[in-house]
Design brief:
CATH class: Alpha Beta
Number of domains: 1
CATH architecture: 3-Layer(aba) Sandwich
Order of helices and strands: HHHEHEHEEHEHHEEEE
Strand content: 25-35%
Radius of gyration: 16 Å
């Protein structure tokens, strides 16, 4: 993860829940969790967990949730919010996940890929830690041209073509891959005022 991305999230961690609500709503979380098909006996990994947007809801469905984020400040916020829940907190990168092979039943993530220097590597890592028949579900921005987000929110990628996302999921070895349009993000930026960027929901499962 780049230094700029890390510094951004360290700075905004205490306000992130408020900022996030201005970008996208609960329908994103509901769509990710529905696609993940989490069962009560499963262990779920939330990559780029932040302050626990997906983690909180997943913890109501799964036996255990591992919340992974590179920002200690964001994880600290999640620890406070989710104290006493069935959640384990880890510091680490999506491109080098500190978990053994085939150790979780599902991997979920929201708005994490566009902060990854190497999205292909991140998806391969997420697939590596999935157990056979496990599901990977990601939501993120579709391709856009709002370059101001690079400066204002430390975005490394201006979203992604859905065909690209499908391709890297297939390359990682996932099957039954689907990438569909989701709701829209975002809110006002300093430079461009109100912007509206379509999101995508990508899902696939690990057969072997």
């Amino acid at each position: 993860m780049s230094r700029e991305v890390k510094e951004y999230f360290e700075q905004v961690s205490s306000q992130w829940d408020t900022i996030r609500r201005g970008f996208y709503g609960e329908e994103v979380r509901e769509a990710v969790l529905m696609a993940a098909r989490i069962l009560p006996d499963q262990t779920v990994l939330d990559v780029g967990a932040g302050t626990g947007f997906l983690t909180e809801a997943a913890s109501r469905k799964a036996r255990k949730v591992i919340a992974l984020d590179f920002s200690e400040s964001m994880i600290a916020e999640a620890r406070t919010k989710l104290a006493g829940r069935n959640v384990e907190f880890r510091i680490g990168s999506a491109e080098q996940i500190p978990l053994p092979d085939a150790s979780v039943d599902a991997v979920i993530g929201n708005m994490v890929l566009h902060h990854c220097p190497r999205p292909e590597t991140a998806v391969k890592e997420m697939t590596r830690v999935l157990a056979p028949k496990g599901r990977l579900v990601l939501s993120d921005l579709q391709e856009h041209n709002h370059d101001s987000l690079r400066k204002e929110h430390a975005d490394l990628w201006m979203g992604f073509k859905m065909s690209y996302v499908s391709g890297i999921m297939h390359e990682a070895g996932l099957e039954d891959v689907s990438v569909e349009s989701l709701s829209s993000c975002c809110s006002e930026t300093k430079e461009e005022g109100q912007i509206n960027i379509p999101m995508f929901l990508a899902a696939g499962h690990k057969h072997w």
